[in-house]
Design brief:
The two termini are 29 Å apart. The chain is built from 13 helices and 17 strands. A hairpin with a 6-residue loop joins strand 8 (228-230) and strand 9 (237-239). It has a five-stranded mixed β-barrel. Strands 12-15-14-13 form a four-stranded mixed sheet, with no helix packed on it. A two-stranded antiparallel ribbon has the order 8-9. The protein is an alpha+beta fold.
Length: 407
């Protein structure tokens, strides 16, 4: 039997079958909109919204409170304390306020949209919703280090029909890729992480360490210059055969540091192309085994790159790439194959044995993922690894929305 909204929502969202988001319960006839030619009711009337709280009240509520909130969509949160009003980079999050012209993030409730609702309510797919008045049902919880609403199970426009869902992310993928992820569809949280782990760990070809040179010349080839590769941190196009250990050559950068995973050059995590990239030898050495985070002093050789004693901040164009590589590793390697269980955490600067299996900073990587979505180079690289080298994919390149569904 389809799910029924809890009693706390019955005074607000009397539209389980009304929004097109949730099916009507068996034996329950959907109400019809006045003047319609039949079919489900699509508009919220004043009675249906009477029980919703204002955003100001929601902001004052403690975490864990079940809420129905009425407010205006005023933008997309992209970082702690930062909400944009366009252009919108994803359908992952919303900001809601009592005033449609609100600009102060402190007066906004930040909403995490679950995967089933993004194609209908996300601002990247529907920028015309900016300023619209909505009612949302969810649970008060911190999001982007501020007051938020999570576990959202219903959204509706006040006085208007819901927008037409945008084509699903899966619909843009080739049929073979859609089939690859079939067992993960409809899942979220730990359940999704487990399903993805099984998918990306099955029938995988493990390369030898010396095979990585040839593989990287393929996966990271400069599309505009045959015979050259693109270095991860500098972005420079360099001769593909200029690999080695000298300062002006490129070598094999492990985005999840070998020492932080305890895998060295072992076939498996030590040779997994989904996190091994060409990098300038001296820049690679300077990155060492640092965590990822914002800030520090300019690195010097790699433009728009910063480091301090605890962390490394790569150039803007690959921040999302780095995030998705790290998150892939956390899902792919869970300690069941003789290697460490890899986990992404908020802590940076761990040392020695305490660092083994851990890499940070999670909140920064999640923000980088949202700010820098997958581009054509990253998608082509994912295809090459799948089709030619390892036989598995990075799911967060194919389905970026799954990052928020897990973390």
């Amino acid at each position: 039997m389809p799910p029924v909204l809890a009693p706390r929502r019955l005074g607000v969202l009397l539209l389980v079958g009304v929004l097109g988001l949730l099916p009507a319960c068996a034996g329950q006839e959907p109400a019809e909109e006045a003047g319609s030619a039949g079919g489900a009711r699509t508009l919220l009337d004043p009675v249906a919204t009477a029980g919703a709280t204002a955003v100001a009240q929601a902001l004052a509520s403690p975490d864990g409170t079940a809420l129905s909130v009425r407010g205006h969509l005023v933008g997309q949160p992209v970082a702690p304390g930062e909400v944009v009003r366009g252009p919108f980079s994803s359908d992952l999050a919303l900001a809601v306020a009592d005033d449609p012209g609100e600009r102060d993030p402190a007066r906004m409730l930040l909403v995490q949209l679950p995967a089933p609702l993004r194609s209908t309510w996300g601002l990247a797919s529907h920028p015309e919703l900016l300023g619209a008045e909505v009612v949302l049902g969810g649970e008060r919880a911190s999001y982007f280090s501020a007051a938020g609403l999570k576990q959202v199970d219903a959204v509706a426009l006040v006085g208007a029909a819901p927008p037409t869902p945008a084509p699903s992310a899966a619909g843009d993928l080739p049929a073979v890729v859609q089939e690859y992820y079939a067992d993960a569809e409809g899942r979220s949280g730990d359940d999704l992480a487990r399903a993805l782990h099984e998918i990306v760990s099955t029938d995988v070809e493990r390369l030898r360490y010396d095979e990585l040179w040839e593989a990287l010349r393929d996966t990271d080839a400069d599309p505009a210059a045959p015979g050259r590769v693109i270095e991860l941190y500098t972005g420079d196009s360099v001769p593909g055969d200029a690999n080695g250990g000298d300062p002006e050559e490129w070598n094999r950068e492990h985005v999840w540091p070998q020492s932080r995973g305890g895998f060295g050059t072992a076939a498996g995590p030590g040779t997994d192309l989904h996190h091994v990239r060409p990098a300038d030898v001296s820049v690679n050495a300077d990155r060492s085994s640092l965590d990822f985070d914002d800030g520090g002093s300019p690195q010097g050789e790699a433009a728009d790159t910063y480091r301090d004693a605890d962390s490394w901040e790569p150039r803007e164009a690959v921040k999302g790439d780095v995030a998705r590589m790290v998150l892939y590793m956390a899902v792919r390697y869970e300690g069941g194959d003789g290697f460490a269980d890899l986990e992404v955490s908020e802590q940076v600067g761990r040392r020695d044995l305490d660092a083994l299996g851990h890499l940070g900073r999670l909140s920064t990587l999640l923000r980088w993922h949202e700010q820098d979505p997958p581009d054509a180079f990253e998608r082509a690289r994912n295809d090459a690894i799948f089709e030619t080298w390892q036989g598995n994919r990075n799911p967060f390149v194919d389905r970026p929305e799954w990052v928020a569904a897990i973390w």
